[in-house]
Every structure is written in C-alpha cells, then in structure tokens.
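Materials and Methods. Structural model of VWFA domain-containing protein. The 210-residue sequence of VWFA domain-containing protein from Rufibacter tibetensis was retrieved and submitted for structure prediction as follows.
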Amino acid sequence: MQIHNLIILDESGSMNSIKKETISGFNELVQTLKGMKERFPEQEHFISLFTFNGEGIKPRLYKLPVKGLKEIDGKIYRPHAQTPLFDAIGTSVTKLRDDLGDLADTNVLVTILTDGRENASREYTGTQVKRLIDEQKQKGWTFTYIGANHDVEHVATSISITNSITFKATSEGTAEIFSKERTSRMEYLRKLNENEDISSGYYDESDQGQ
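The predicted structure was written out as tokens:
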C-alpha cells in the first residue's frame, strides 16, 4: 500500500517568527513516518513538500520515499512575502493528482499549514479549489487544515475541508500543533491498516490512543 503525504506549508513572511519550530516540527514528522515502517510494514510512505509565498509555489520534495529522506533546514525554508494559499493548494494537488493517476492501492493525505488568510493568489479561486478538493475526496483523498490568526474552521469548510484545527503562532503553540499532528497521523495510519473509516475525525481526540 502506497501512502502519499502531501504537505503544503506556508512560507510567507509572518511565518518567520516560528521558522525554527516549523522546521523542527516537519523533521520530527518525517522521523515519525520512518518509524511507521516497523509498525505497519505493508505501508510504503512517500512525502511531497510544497512551500508557498508571494514569489511562487516551490516543490521542495516530491514523491520521495521517506526512507533515507534528509532533514530540511533554514537554507530550504526561508519565510517572506505574501500568502497565495489557493494557488498553493491548486498547484500541488493538481500535480500530484495528475502524476498518480488511478494508481491502485494508494492513499493520499494532504496537510495544509498556514498562519494567515489567502491574500495573493492569481491562478486559483476559492471556488476552484473547493471543486478540486471535492473531486479528490470522492477518490478517497483526506485533507486537513492547520491554521492560525484567522477563522480557521470557516476558511477550511469554505474549501470543503472538515478536518481542521487552530494553533497559536508562537514557539510553544507551533511545537504543540506538530505534536498533535503526529499523533493524529499515527491514528490515521492505524485506521488505514485496519480498514476503518478515515473520511472524518482526523483530529478527534476520542479516537486517539486506542
């Protein structure tokens, strides 16, 4: 079973205050996925990381096996400029969709992390992104939205994402949300392994630790 972990990460200027924690959180997430190979040997994990700001959408990692993946650092992740959120989602999801095609026995988990609202997209509108997400959810893709400094639930539901969670854009808050994300991801993978429903409740604490 192939599992593609698509991370869409805000690299706009406001993320600078939590740059260190964001880099650390991503690297710890990769380590968690590496550890999943022992727990669920039949799962083959791949990571794609797209960062975004007013200068463009950047595929930092793309469809790379988790095994042997190196850590990212401050040379790769350098926050500045604005927040083209819709362009980032549209570009990255469309690329992965087109490249995966109808590959059998494949699951996709898309994670969006941003500390601000959309303010700079030129290619995609919210309506277009919602349509794209609806289409991929029909194919079994799972979407999650992690946000700060805006009405996270409203923005997420407006583009058809029901798995959303708010974090405080501080050092402590960022570390906490990445810890929560790792726990939720492990539970998601357990459900996949046991053929349980993964369509909703990604951040539902009542499901975790079972």
